[in-house]
Amino acid sequence: MGIIRFLFCTFEFMKNLVLIIVLIFLVSSCGSKKSLIKKNLDQRLTSAFYENQFTGVLVIDANSKDTIYNLNDHKYFTPASNTKIFTLFTAIKTLPDQIPTLQYIDRNDTLYFEGTGDPSFLHPYLKDSTAFKFLKSKKNLVFATDNFMDTKFGPGWAWDDYQYYYSPERNAFPLYGNVVMIHKDTSLLVSPTYFKDSILQIRNTKNRKETSNLFFYPPNYADTLEIPFIINTLNTKAILEQALNKPILNRSKMPIGTKQTLPGIQADSLYVRMMHESDNFIAEQLLVLAASTLKDTLNSGLAREYILEHELNQLAQTPRWVDGSGLSRYNLFTPQNMVHVLNELFVLVPKERLYSIFPAGGSSGTLKNRFKGVDQPYIFAKSGSLSNNYCLSGYLLTKSGKTLIFSFMNNHYKNATSDERTQLELMLQTLRDNY
Questions:
Q1: Core-most of 221, 305, 407, 424, by most CB within 10 Å?
Q2: What pairs with residue 385 in β-bridges?
Q3: Which residues pair with residue 371 across a beta bridge?
Q4: Burial class of residue 179 in the structure, from the number of CB atoms within 10 Å of its CB (0-12 exposed, 13-18 middle, 19+ buried)
């Protein structure tokens, strides 16, 4: 019995010793990987290329939450369209699987309805017809117009962007993506046709007159122009009447009573377009939609305040968050902010769905021609760019099978943005190959 006990104790000792050696090896290996990554990224980020710009980085292991690399990760940056990551989180937290496309009260053969901010109604790319068919089926329509309690442009938006496709006005009941689409085939094709007599085929320094819905389309121009139109109650009513081919009455408020909600397009259709195409209009309207589900007032500020107070009150730094799209330079976020929300999404959303919403490097959306993997995508991330600013935040799959959450934020450079992307890609490849 003594020999058996001795052999058993010896076996247990050797087993524990092997386990300790393995753990030491793993810790040492992990430490050496981090050391190699730190050395490589330090060398790049202290090179002459980055000398006159401001850069912040945070990279963590998605499962262990260990910090792999950080630099200025607590400091504020202009995020540009990285802001849409916060908008995505807000939408997923507040909106149902089907977007609430309008609210209504059906009473005495009359349908009273109001907008929720849904951007999909007659949208040229989304092509959802739910609300259209619903309104078309009703005999008498009364449109309640005064539930939008926000500004048509976001704080800090560039005033001269009014003419460009990426800067449509915000409102309660968007139509056709709030842009006029003009294309020349054998004749001039205009959508919505309500504006067909407002197009001048002349060259002009602007696409639209600043103060009115007068649009300019250059002769011999071959491509489609998308130009935001000025929104008011009269033209919203007229465009809707023309689309439905029936008269509509207006009133300021809905009648007293219980409102019903009409479910519309699948929410992920909006999320994918927002993230893949960096669609500013959809981003802005998603915050309006979020507000409509929280309160009976359409104001995007309500949605931002709610999320920061109730869902993101553990952020290490309080961001300055003023719009849904990132068009404003007033926005200020840290790399820690971005990684925190990306981690919340990583925990909340199944991976297949999450990665389908984000652009994939070398494969889809705004990353289709950038950050390409060898056999398959290894980057699923949102880019953000304004003049002299480029940010990229998202998820990175390493060759060893690990998942990293990262945020690289670059502000105030005078290099070409293509060169910024090249330098960033080299660092992402270092992470992919060495962790």
A1: 407
A2: 390
A3: none
A4: buried
Domain for residue 212, yes or no?
yes
| Of 5 and 176, the one with more pLDDT | 176
> pLDDT tens digits, residue range 302-337?
999 999 999 999 999 999 999 999 999 999 999 999
Of the candidates 385, 182, 392, 179, the residue with the CA atom closest to the CA atom of residue 281: 179
CB of 363 closer than 8 Å to CB of 104:
no
Tens digits of residue pLDDT in 161-183: 999 999 999 999 999 999 999 99
Q: How far is CA 337 from CA 48, 86, 100, 323, in A?
A: 28, 9, 29, 16
Domain that holds residue 267: 88-300
Burial per residue of 211-233, b for 16 or more beta-carbon CB atoms within 10 angstroms, e otherwise: eebebbbeeeeeeebbbbbbbee
Report the distance separating Cα 360 and Cα 394, nearest Å: 10
Encode pLDDT of 21-40 as tens digits: 544 444 455 568 899 999 99
d(CA 194, CA 180): 9
How many other CB atoms are there within 10 angstroms of residue 253's CB atom? 11
Number of domains in the chain: 1
- Residues of the chain with pLDDT > 70, as a percent, come to 93
Mean pLDDT score across all residues of the chain: 93
The answer on pLDDT for 408 being more than 50 is yes
Answer yes or no: is 31 within a domain.
no
In the block, residue with structure tokens 């992470």: 431
In a domain, 138, yes or no: yes
